[in-house]
Amino acid sequence: MQGQRVLVVGASEGIGLAVAQAAAQAGASVTIAGRHQDKLDAAAAGTELATLRLDAGDEAEVAAYFAACEPWDHLVTLTGGRWGPMPVAQTPVETTQKAFAEKFWTQYRVVKHGSGKVNPGGSIILTSGQASRRYSAGVAWLSAINAALEALGRGLAIELAPARVRVNVVCPGIVDTAIFDRMPPDAKQAFMAGLAGRLLVGFVAKPADLAAAYLYLMTSPYSSASVVDVDGGGAR
To answer: What is the largest CA-CA distance in the chain?
Structure first.
């Protein structure tokens, strides 16, 4: 990836930051984007990562940025809020709409305005999640969001094929990120051990374990309209 330019939106922590670090290690010039400059600065400290404060929830801000920026070789989106179970019958529609706004519409805005700023031969990668195919009570809304992102990726791949821009989606399983740090340490350890016992690989991934899937999709010229599951075998 030497000399290629990569923008990762939603990269101040977790999987997004791991993807940015891996792309930089592969030789790319990488910019991490997010809503909070202080988090971006902390994430980029001591590295060659550039930062960009960008609120993917603000249509005008996203449109203005991509109208003025230089072209990118790869555009990666990993935005999304943190929500607990929300049974359909007990959850106000407005709450579910907010969840959609934080995960689906943020990524939609980025690819809507950013797709014209990806160089021929480059790629766009969206991020969904295993709820798109592993259904459970209380997260039907999340299943719908993730399935919508995967459909968006496949449809956009057809639209952008004439421009020689590939579009793919990564579908992560459970990943040990900061969201679980709110649990007491003993409870988290027991929870992760229980999850690991149900996965074919026998462990719960760290963010860095997911980064290789994103790099594969950036560097594989024959991959487009794909949804790549990285879930430790949990969806089998």
So the answer is: 53
pLDDT at 111: 98
Of 156, 155, 135, nearest to 146 (Cα)?
135
3-state secondary structure of 96: helix
Q: Bridge partners of 50? A: 31
Q: Is 25 exposed, middle or buried (0-12, 13-18, 19+ CB in 10 A)?
A: middle
Domains and CATH numbers, the chain: 5-177+207-226 (3.40.50.720)
Put simply, whether the predicted model's pTM sits higher than 0.90 gets the answer: yes
pLDDT value of position 236: 55
Q: How crowded is residue 37: how many other Cβ atoms within 10 Å of its Cβ?
A: 12
* Residue 198 DSSP SS3: coil
Reading across the β-sheet that carries 72-77, which strands appear in turn? Answer: 50-53, 29-34, 5-9, 72-77, 118-127, 166-172, 227-230
Range name among 65-74, 126-135, 206-215 with the lowest pLDDT average: 126-135
Strand 50-53 relative to strand 166-172, pairing = unpaired
